[in-house]
Task: structure prediction
Amino acid sequence: MTPPELPSYCVADLSWVDVQAYLAEDDLVLVPVASTEQHGRHLPLSTDTITALEVSRRAAAIARALYTPVMWAGYSPQHMGHAGEGLGTITLRATTFQNVCHDIARSLIHHGFNKIVFVAGHGSNVKVIDPVLRKLKYETGALIGYYKAYAERYLGFLRGLMENPEHETPGWHSSELETSQVLAHDARLVRMDRAVREQTHTPEWLPGAFLKQDGAPDVEFQGYQYFIFPMDHREFSPSGCIGNPFTATREKGEEALDRFARHLAAAIDELRKVPVKVFNREFTDRAL
Result:
């Protein structure tokens, strides 16, 4: 396949003529999915959206692959805070998030795309995405993928780029990685004068025998992580930040975003080789 060179690889920037020209050569499209949620005192609510969009945009430019506008709301019930508190988070219910992802993908498959890769900038979306990925696969036969463009517990190829030691969670919420990436995107959005350095603590309502060390849902008991409790982010991180953001730099953010983008672009080239036969393309129930 030789994808055409286009003035933009965002579907929304193109006309249907450009989309047809692309589909004549390629059948893969990226769908960035993220969230609008509190990210501590110093980062914007759009932090996860910035990650998903930047990685998709950069990977698309390298691989000449199309991507959709970013889905800016995700599954973020734990970031809502108390009613009237004014944290600004916008969350979708699990079924709403699943239905929106489903309908975006079904629309794209309807038009002729055979390979859909969701590009995620928000970790909690993965808690509810599996049913819709499987539904799309079983309904249509399309190749459905989900790319996690964030670090959290698994630094992967970002190990060595981050300065903070792993026990200080450089990839977690509003810490070194996310602060660096927003600096790379638009430094005006980062308010380091408001930043705090904070590690998680066990919620007050849990006995001291339980231990919570990061933002994952797992809670340790007697040295083992077999428990999960639904809890709000503020219960273990009062400021919303997990880790040390003060080591963040624009250069680290640029390199991190580029590493994700190059990795995703290389995967796109490999996925283009996969033969896919869609057996159910028309989105017949699109008006229900």
